Amino acid sequence: MTKIQRSGAPARRSSVAGMVGTALLLASAGSLAGGGRVADGAGAARAPAVVAHRGGAMLRPENTMPAFRHAAGLGVEVLEFDMLMTADGRIAVYHDADINADFCAPEPGSGVVAGPVRGLSFDQTQRFDCGSRVRPAYAGEKHLTVPGARIPALDEVLDGFRDSGAIFFAETKFPRPTPGVADVDPVEFAARLEAAVRERGLEERLILQSFDYRTLDALHELNPRIRTCLLGAGKLNGEYLAAIRRHRASCIVLGLEDGDRDAVRRLQDAGVLVYSGVADTQEEWARYVGLGVDAIFTNDPEGAIAYLRRAGLRD
Predict the structure, then answer these.
(1) If both were cysteines, with which of 4, 124, 168, 310 could 120 make a disulfide (CB 3.0 to 4.6 Å apart)?
(2) Would you call 166 exposed, middle or buried from its count of C-beta atoms within 10 A (0-12, 13-18, 19+)?
(3) How far apart are alpha carbons 143 and 161 in whole angstroms?
(4) Which strand (E) or helix (H) includes residue 135?
(5) What CA–CA distance (Å, rounded) separates 17 from 282?
(6) Confidence of residue 47 (pLDDT cuts 50, 70, 90)
C-alpha cells in the first residue's frame, strides 16, 4: 500500500473576489457545453466545470494514478494529463521531455539514469519513483507525496477511469530534437492515441490538446469523432475562430490576456468550448467565471471546487 506524506513548503494564498453564476451540468459525458446562466446584474455568467491539471499537481504527485484518483474523488469533470512517446513506441503520461530529477528518482540498484523519455523504454520509465518528492513549483501545505508512484501508461489512465464518466483532456508533447534520440512522428503519435481511445469506445470522452497542431490535424483525419483543442492562443493574433476552423477543432484554451467576455461568448455561440488557462488562486477563478469560460484549468481542483461552492455555483 502506498504511503501518503505531506510536503512542507508554504502554500500560495490569495483573496477571493465574489462572482455569481450557476454550476455547469454535463448533458452527457461527451459534452461540456451548455452550462447554465443566471442574471447577476451585470449580464449572464456561465459556471465552469473543473479541470484537474496533471491530476491536480498542487495536491498529489503530478500525472500519476494517485493524483487522478484523488481528483476523481473530488468530483472534477475533467482529468488533464500530458503524453510522451517512449523509445519502444508506448505512450507514457509525463510532462517533461527528460525525466526530472527534482521529483523522479531511480530506484536503488535499478541501473537506470534520468534522460529523455523518448530515449527510454517504457519498462525503464517504471524504475523511477515519481511520488516521494514534488516539483518545487507545486510544493505547499496542500501537497501530499505518495512514495512509489510511477509514470503511468496512457492505457492505464484510460482503463482506470473508463467507468468514471470523467472527460480525458490529453496533451501531446513533442521534445526538441536530441542527438541520438529518435524524433516523434506526429502521425504515428496520433495513430497510437486513436487506437487506444477507439478500442475502449472512448471517442466521446477524450479531447486532444496540443501546441503542435500536426497531431490535431492527423487525429481528425484518422477519427473525426475525437475532439481536439488548440493551445497557444497567444500566437493566433486573436484570429481564434479562423484557426479553430482551419484545424477542425472544437475547443480552445484562453488565458486572461487572450480575450474578454464578448470574445468568449462569440466562440461559444459558434459551438466552441472555451477552457481557461491554468489558474490556482481565488482571484483568477473569479475572473474566469466572469469571462464565462466552460471550464477552469487548475492545479488545485480542491480549492477551485470549494470556491465555486462558496460562490453558489456548485452543489
Answers:
(1) 124
(2) buried
(3) 22
(4) none
(5) 7
(6) confident
Strand partners, 37: 46
Is the predicted pLDDT of residue 167 greater than 90, yes or no? yes
Contact 172, 207 (CB under 8 A): no
Determine the Cα–Cα distance for residues 262 and 245; give it in Å rounded to an integer: 19
pTM: predicted TM-score of the whole model, two decimal places: 0.88
**Angstrom distances, CA of residue 281 to CA of 25, 156, 301:** 23, 31, 11
Domains of the chain: residue spans and CATH: 21-97+151-310 (3.20.20.190)
Half-sphere exposure of 124 (CA within 13 A, CB side): 18
pLDDT at 242 over 50: yes
- C-alpha to C-alpha distance for 102 and 226, rounded to whole angstroms: 35
Cα angle 148, 151, 155; round to 5: 125
C-alpha cell at 299: 492545479
Q: Are 299 and 57 in contact (CB under 8 A)?
A: yes
